[in-house]
């Protein structure tokens, strides 16, 4: 009874779940069921809900309409992904959308091929010319003219991860291989691109300039790679060994921009604006709510700058909701807030449901919202308030453990790995991540003061090196991870069902089922 009441307090959670189910069904039936049947089913279920008097049947009809809407969104998206590609080798003009990265004898990059209605995204491999090294002049935002064959996205053989599907879900229309003598740089006319596309390209150029500023300020090697990944969302400088160390030690989430990073950015901006609003003649900024709008504008600008990874977008939406209801005496972070974030993202791009980052992000936050209150209930609130240091360490452990509970089945399914010492690693890595974010902001604004800048750069390098050394040490400990885990989709789903039942049983005995 208590559980049912709790679920009724979260109508958006049920809507999000039905929308996800509808997307799954819609995509699986997209080859045989078109858009019209889903539209008809959505309208029919909505009309039936209007005329049905029984409350339970009315709710079922409304949920069925949400499911049908999910099917419509998935089918529409599937149709839009079927981009016609030119046959055989063809000449085209393209803008470079990501900083080129060397991989053996080729460089990899994202290209936006100019087409009449905008750009067509493709993944490109360009054969390096080691005699002239022309490829070294290519950077994000540059234009090129090329001659190659563009093929439909395809996956890697004997791999659980379907690379071709991943490309399609991220709006890549194809892949291509460009020979060293079949391309040249070119000045392209981008006036036909939308304002949004031109803004994104300009921001990616600016992000690359910020990375170059980091280099000029004394950062280098993997310390530079870690800082750029954590502050600018660019991980192309991180080498394979560092990625593996972070993955085995259970700290790879720190390298991916997420709620941790965006919350710190939000906190810094809110604090700075509160100082400005504290000036007598500028107090109207806070009273009128303009200060919150300025903070949110800066947060979303940061989201545009670092790219639209699911975890960053989810965090930005949740922070937007947090700000919108901050003047109401309500619980600002709840399952309803999380569900609304998911609904917005799924409506914009229904196939983001298949993105591993989306799944991990929402699994982690859902688990934190559910299990953190249970862990904290083991100690009295008064006792925790009296022992602030213990509370800080315990809070960090609780959040890390809760997130690991929520993401462990997915990580085991996708990556075949379970990190055994992630709790220990996060005690050190998470505070280091906060210090890196704060220090990076100081570093960027201290450029006019060379002495201060050099000290901050040294401190930032030391923190990054510490983080790198800790993850390397943990990853080489005996039993650092359990490898080659092979579980199916059904087994992964059953693990989540078991986790949910565990939560319900513990909550029943501790009387903590309250999602508000």
TrEMBL record:
Identification of the protein by name: ComEC/Rec2-related protein domain-containing protein
Domain of life of the organism encoding this protein: Bacteria
Keyword Transmembrane annotated: yes
Membrane topology: Multi-pass membrane protein
Transmembrane stretches, start-end: 12-29, 35-53, 254-279, 299-321, 333-354, 360-380, 392-415, 421-444, 489-510
Lineage, uppermost ranks: Bacteria, Pseudomonadati, Bacteroidota, Bacteroidia, Bacteroidales
Cellular localisation: Cell membrane
Species name: Prevotella micans F0438
ComEC/Rec2-related protein domain location: 230-506
InterPro entries registered for this protein in UniProt: ComEC_N, Competence_DNA_uptake
């Amino acid at each position: 009874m208590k559980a049912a009441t709790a679920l009724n307090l979260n109508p958006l959670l049920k809507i999000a779940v039905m929308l996800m189910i509808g997307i799954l069904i819609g995509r699986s039936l997209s080859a045989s069921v078109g858009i019209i049947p889903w539209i008809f089913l959505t309208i029919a279920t909505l009309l039936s809900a209007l005329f049905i008097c029984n409350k339970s049947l009315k709710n079922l009809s409304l949920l069925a309409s949400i499911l049908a809407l999910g099917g419509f969104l998935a089918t529409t998206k599937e149709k839009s992904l079927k981009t016609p590609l030119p046959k055989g080798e063809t000449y085209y003009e393209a803008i470079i959308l990501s900083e080129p990265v060397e991989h053996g004898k080729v460089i990899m990059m994202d290209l936006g091929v100019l087409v009449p209605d905008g750009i067509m995204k493709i993944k490109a491999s360009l054969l390096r010319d080691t005699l002239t090294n022309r490829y070294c002049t290519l950077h994000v935002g540059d234009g090129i003219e090329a001659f190659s064959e563009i093929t439909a996205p395809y996956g890697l053989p004997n791999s659980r991860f379907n690379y071709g599907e991943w490309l399609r879900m991220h709006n890549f229309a194809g892949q291509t291989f460009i020979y060293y003598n079949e391309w040249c740089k070119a000045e392209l006319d981008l006036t036909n691109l939308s304002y949004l596309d031109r803004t994104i390209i300009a921001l990616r150029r600016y992000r690359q300039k910020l990375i170059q500023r980091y280099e000029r300020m004394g950062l280098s090697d993997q310390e530079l790679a870690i800082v750029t990944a954590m502050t600018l969302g660019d991980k192309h400088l991180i080498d394979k060994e560092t990625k593996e160390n972070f993955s085995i030690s259970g700290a790879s989430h720190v390298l991916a921009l997420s709620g941790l990073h965006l919350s710190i950015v939000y906190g810094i901006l809110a604090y700075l604006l509160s100082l400005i609003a504290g000036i007598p003649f500028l107090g109207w900024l806070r009273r009128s709510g303009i200060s919150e709008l300025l903070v949110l504008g800066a947060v979303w600008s940061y989201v545009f700058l670092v790219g639209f990874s699911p975890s960053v977008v989810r965090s930005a939406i949740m922070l937007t909701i947090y700000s919108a209801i901050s003047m109401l005496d309500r619980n600002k972070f709840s399952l309803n807030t999380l569900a609304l974030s998911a609904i917005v993202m799924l409506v914009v791009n229904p196939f983001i449901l298949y993105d591993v980052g989306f799944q991990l992000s929402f699994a982690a936050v859902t688990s934190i919202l559910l299990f953190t209150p249970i862990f904290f209930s083991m100690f009295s609130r008064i006792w925790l308030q009296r022992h602030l240091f213990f509370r800080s360490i315990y809070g960090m452990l609780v959040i890390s453990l809760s997130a690991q509970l929520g993401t462990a089945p997915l990580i085991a399914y996708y990556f075949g790995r379970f990190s055994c010492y992630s709790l220990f690693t996060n005690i050190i890595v998470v505070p280091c991540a906060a210090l890196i974010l704060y220090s990076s902001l100081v570093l960027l604004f201290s450029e006019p003061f060379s002495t201060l800048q050099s000290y901050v750069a040294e401190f930032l390098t030391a923190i990054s090196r510490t983080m790198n050394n800790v993850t390397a040490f943990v990853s080489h400990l005996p039993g650092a991870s359990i490898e080659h885990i092979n579980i199916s989709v059904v087994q992964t789903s059953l693990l989540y069902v078991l986790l949910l039942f565990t939560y319900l049983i513990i909550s029943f005995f501790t009387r903590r089922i309250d999602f508000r």
